[in-house]
Batch of 2 targets.
Target 1
Amino acid sequence: MSALTFAIFAPIVGMIAILFVKKEEAEKAKTIGFLTSLVMFAACTYVAWQCFHIPEGQQYVLESKALWIDLGGSFQVHYHIGVDGLSGMLIFLTGLLSVCAALASFTIKQSVRGYWAMFLLLHCGVIGTFASLDMFLFYVFWEIMLLPMYFLIGVWGGPRRIYAAIKFFLYTLFGSIFLLAGILIVYFAVTAEGSGFTGNPFSIPDLTDYALAMKGSGGILHNFASSLSWIPTAVFWGMFVAFAVKVPVFPFHTWLPDAHVEAPTPISVILAGILLKLGGYGMLRINFPLFPEVLADSAFIIGTLGCISIVYGALVAMAQTDFKKMVAYSSVSHMGFCLLGFASMTSEGMNGAILQLFNHGTISGMLFLVVGVVYERAHHRDLNRFGGLMWRMPVYATISSIAIFASIGLPGLSGFWGEFLSFAGSFKGLYSGAKIITVIATLGLVFTAAYYLRAIQKVFLGKTNPACEQFPDLDKREFWMIMPLLVPTILFGIYPKYLIEIYQPFVESFMTLVAKVGA
Amino acid sequence: MQVDLPSYVPWIIFAPAIAALIQHFRGEKLPRKGDLVVIGGILVSAFLSFRLMFEWAALEPGQYFEQTWSWFTLAGGHTFTMGIVVDGLTASLLCVVTLVATLVFCFSTAYMKGDEYYHRFFFWLSFFAVSMLILTLADNLLMLFMGWELVGLCSYKLIGFWSKEIPNAEAAKKAFITTRVGDVGMLIGMLILYATCDSLSIKAIFEGVQAGKFAGSETALTWAGIGIFFGAVGKSAQFPLQIWLPDAMAGPTPVSALIHAATMVAAGVYLTARMFPIFTPDALGFIAWTGGITALLAALVAFTQTDIKKVLAYSTVSQLGYMIMGVGVGAPWAGMFHLTTHAMFKACLFLGSGSVIHAMHHAQDLKDMGGLAKKMPITFATFSIATLALAGAPFFSGFLSKDAILIEAWENGHGALFFIGLGAAFGTAFYMGRLVYLCFLGKPRNQEKYDHAHESPWVMTVPLIILAALSLSVFYDGFADKFYRTPAYAAEFPITETNTHAYWTTGQRPDDFHEGHGPSWFHTVAMLMGVIGLGVGGAIFMSGKRNEKTRLLPSGLHDLAAGKYYMDELYLDGFVASANRLADGCTWVDDNIVDGLVNTSGKGGLVLGVVSADADQLVVDGAVNLTAAATQGAGAVASTAQSGRVRNYLAAALGVTAVAVVLLVFVIG
């Protein structure tokens, strides 16, 4: 069994163990859950470490492949997994956040066993999605994630949890139907007579190579495109919507604030830190490589959506009075940088976008933990009802400020690199209008500073609100649940080299693709 | 010509960085709350800076130290570097920063004594020094930008140091956001340069510009220049972003001296001087006029202020305008020279005002002062020397540097700016005369506070004496020629096409500088401006009939200046209010339209779903079963009634599935 398979199914083992825990000893579930997250973290770190040493000429490491579903003919679904630097980095992020989220989950008191079972199942789905090299398997893991998330919000969430959970579930399902349709259309296209495709019709690497070989002659769907020229565009956009819902991109973002506001803290952390990254990852792994020519034609629209997400997200965040909702909208704003980078199809832009995936994961994870800490003490999140926490909770205030300034994009903290490189790439973007879009997007920087500084002032500065007088500073558990995210934020902020190096082969091959498409 | 960097140079940054780390984690528990650690760090830095300055001075003209390290490399071969360059600009600014910082740190030990967050204050001071030194030493725009933003952070934290009071926190926020507006401009400038030159290393940018990468798109180069300069407009408080600096006086006075007078605000001038070769004539004209307008407008406001620190703050804005004007008229060396002299005498003035405020138990309005010369002789003497320097009296440093800017303006054909500068010089002298008289001379206007006033302890007065001494012109003989005429890269990449002034690019000193240049009446007039201005500014109060409230300007102009040209109101009611309205509007759109569409499509999906329910039992059933199972699951666990809305969502999913299936059937069929 490869380390990757282990990383995917370790949570399932933990989940099974929890099923044997008796109701009276529900606390044990907590221990099992936490230990499993540590094991996951170790496995994920090992997986990521392997990605630094990908042998020459090989695209993936830790690859394993076995026939899974055989419906006869060409319909063969494989359990085909493997990682490159991109997925390796995101798997590492998953492991890291799982430990933080597990520590933050210690305060869950209701149906503890069920919670931890769902918590672990969620990670199985996430790591599986990142590791899949078979489109069908990708889809299966993609849907596996949905279910535990639905319960985690719907059962352990806030007052409007049912509404938020169902909205989340159906919205994502709405997107993933397009993904399934796309996968099937691609399947029918490449297996039809005269496609010239010899690989496995679900294999992502095979299809990527094929898409590249077919450039200029109709692309991956050339079989259908000859009679229906709009098919590749339609399938591209269908898949794009599936991933855009997850990112989330304006105008598919409205499930996010509801889900975040209702979800318990650790689930918000995972939602913002990892689940959103799956959207960007899906685009990079499936959407763009399969339809590079459509991407080149659609760059303007994607860039515009990114720009709107950045500015609009920041503006809506500015008007929020709920601390958590503000952070949720800041996620919409910050994930817009990914689209800006993708659309540019430059090395800088891709780098910026991918860095943003990782760094937004750690930074927004921290921010949601920070909000959770104060919520636990005050039982509300109204920005107007805090004040002067800096004098009562100095450690908390310092850590929060670092997280907030990282999110503002202060150089020296990791959030800066994603934003800066996205801008640098976007400004060089290959589509017309790239410069204007980039300049408009920079406005987001001012609005971002405005709403975050306002939040700092309302929560931390001024005289201490009498209601907050008795708040204790961070305890050991709270401190250590934030530290694993704070350290990479500072480290990669000053010296991002190793983070950048790990996924560089991916960018290189993507740039080859762009060059060949001749965008 | 490039020379290898001495190996100790990175320690100029590391020493205060280590001190800052120790201070952050252990400061509160250390003896004296750790201030000695921080002072030790900056002393090491200062020692190394001076050593480096002397080593640089021993090089041939045109030689400079440089070393770069790889930061990270992107696919496609874009390497970003960290690097240090040491030429005259760097060397002098290093010495200014570390010297003033050392003195201010010492001063602060007395000024901040007993403050609850004394250790935190010293942490931020040390962190500021680190950031400022990164900015100073950087040989590329990326690293410079990093330092640039970090000094902004320190400024934010230190202006809001006493942020238990909300107005102080507001001032800090205003400073950060206003400068951020400038930084966005700077970022855009960097993006233009990067897109064309494919590098952010200053050397590579000069090389690219010289190699004609902007040929045919000079407008882009102009915009790049204006963009970069916009960063300076924010940081150096130039019109129209000057509004934050007077408010920044909410910070402790040593902070005002170090950050908001001597170093950080001057970083904009340093940036424009450093990037001088990329500015096209159009960009330079923009820069010169921005500086000139700022110099004059801010000087007028200083006439109307009654808070000792506010007068000095507007004076700083005005003097920064002077420096920027110097760069803009084609004499970056003169701008840098004024930066250096100004750093000394303005730090002295601010620390002097700190000494007064300390003595007056934190009263800083002129209405409580008067006659303090008798009580505080050392403060008075040093303040007066610095005032003479600021006013541009002969034998003081300000005379040389201000003179240089004015003469360059005249020489390079900026007649209008020359007269504006002359007017601002007179105004400067005048309001300083007023300030000195109202503060130190005449009769005490608040007898009780006067009786309690006392001279400050030696840790405060010694820095004053040192800074006052450094405001004498004897230290600056030949200084500008040595340090600022031959900046790094000038010899390698003389960019004559886009440059208005040859001194900079050829590194040649005009032999006849100070002799025969400008009209013959020039020096006399410039000197008289300062001396007469000072004299008149003080003398009008001698009768005792006038006080700090007396309107010295024509009535309409006074109201305009006292109201700070109503720019705060304009921004608050204009930009800030519009942004807030826009934010509210977007939120409304988000709740009602974007989310509303989701709900509407839910209803629409219901119809579609019913119609196409028969289309393909298999796929639809699958989807339905999945959703149904999930809903039932949630229902069972939470047993909460479902709203009508939920059904809409279900219907939406059905509808979409139906569409997908139709599509599939269509394609397959």
Target 2
Amino acid sequence: MQQYLDLYNGYRDLIDRNSAPVLNAQRAQAAETLKQTGLDKPMKDFTPTDPSSMLSTDYAINLARHEVPVTRSNLFTCSVPDLSTQVWYLVNEQLLPRPDDDRLPEGVYAGSLRDFALQHPDLAERYYNKLASQDVPQCHPGVSALNTMFCQDGFVLYVPDGMQIEKPFQLISLLRSVEDFMAAQRILIILGDGAKANVLVCDHDNELRLHEGDALPTLLSLQVAEIYVGKNAQFDYYCLEEHHDNAQRLSQIYVSQCEGSNAAIGQFSLTAGTTRNHVHISLDGEHIDTQLFGMVIADRKQKVDNLTFIDHRHPNCTSNELFKYVLDEEAQGSFLGRILVREGAIGTDAHQTDRNLCLTPQAHMLARPELEIYADDVKCSHGATVGQLDTAALFYMRTRGIQEEEARMLLMFAFMSDVIEKIRILPLQDRLRHLVEKRFRGELGTAASCQNCG
Amino acid sequence: MSLLEIHNLHASIGGKEILRGIDLTINPGEIHAVMGPNGAGKSTLSAILTGNPAYTVTEGSILYKGKDLLAMPPEQRSWEGIFLSFQYPVEIPGVSMVNFMRTAVNEHRKYNNQPALSATEFLRLMREKRSVVQLDNKLANRSVNEGFSGGEKKRNEIFQMAMLEPTLSILDETDSGLDVDALRIVSDGVNRLKSAERASIVITHYQKLLEYIEPQFVHIVYKGRIVENGGPELANRIFAEGFDWVKEKAE
């Protein structure tokens, strides 16, 4: 941790010079938070991943804003059939400029966080680092503080009141470096009252070697997303991870939903090295609907943790949470899901399901569902299971002539089907079905580009 | 050549011996009924014939079409024409009947060096066979056996049998839990497959099914052995008198 504080203290001017005053204003407090909280995980957190060890590598950080030698045209294109998106590229922590010909509706802002903070300092001031600076359960304040200290730019989506945008925004994030590298990625999403938008984030990395025979670099995506969903607004956020074994992902998503709003948050770890996802959703009004779901498919020595928190603060809100893992070989995973129903949050309808398959005796899953209820007249449930593939079903399929490998594939695919069905963009559902099948068939393996998604 | 030759078959599950020396020969064109009190080993026999990994064969041999059946994995036994209509068909949530059957049919075709069926050809075949057992189209679009009634599950077994056209079909208490109409539909499905090359083993407790599917041979299993062999008259005696006389004679 100290190396980050030293780096920050030594290069404070350089960091500020390449950013915007609103972002710079948050750094000192963030450094203080980091100094106080550190990066260790709390006691009794038995998850396989640990922020302090993930961050112990001596990563390079691009403080001088050296341009990455790529342009939109020499990057891959992501083609999801039947899904037309407005694509943005985030290479490491830098958002690539986008051609002007794709005009957005009047009043909508999508693009660079730095530019947004310069052009709309009032809005940026009101929303930037407000959620992420809170010390809330299942999130790590030190991790967000580290991001805030070094964050110079990022991606913003601002949709004003009443504006409904059907075409999804797609943010393709690509880690590229020949040395151990950390990218402080920042996402800020603000939906006004009655607004509607969809965001798809695709996380990839390019493993590059300078010389044949060099060790592969460790690339870390330090991702913080702050999401505000206005009154009666509807928002979908899907995060698709396809990383190499050497990549690390440390993600914290903070969501604040206003009265009558409706949000779907999906996290899909198709391939990962070491990944730790934190999600905190605060239901800040009545009649809110929240759908939180995710899947993890891991093998070799991959580690994926999901830590989630849904805070029912007001009456008559609904939340549904569904997470599923398939762990093969020596993969490790954990799901720590907490739901809090506060005093007075009557009429709450909160359900959590976590189901996991360990395909080998070496695969390990830790499931800890927690439901805390301080209100009467609520409907809540939670269930967590860890098991193996159904041997009776396997045998039944084999007696029909379906080979064991194929039967296993069909069962694993079937296991994930209800998570895929939670996606509210149909072409994306189809695409994910295709990707999940490829993943189970071992054809996804190391996705260095979107071409693998094809 | 016999279709199936079982010699001195011994089998156990979890260290407990269930089959203690079964001998049975089945020729093409024959229908055999296997009867016996609960726990005699009838279902174990069907499990061994289909290669259920939960059971261990400790002694004996099985030749099917002259080949060592015990050396084949369950899927190969299916490709070679063995089919089991399960006493308790398994529900497979998330796997659609269409996907399940298409995979099964095409694996069979691959084994026989035939090209895979096109989507249209497959759906036509499915429609044709579905009508044999009057299986609702809605069921065909659902997950395998999920939410099916007892009768629907059994009809679904016969539907799968019609799709795969096995050489040796084993019906493990397919009649239990069926009403008279369903029983007739199931029997029709079985009788349609009857031919000089094919054979069936029918495991049952009830007279009704044997009235529809007329076996030439009846075997009584008790404590893991075949203790009585006969023709249809043996089945009639069981229905009239029960198994007590068999047990007394065997003890």
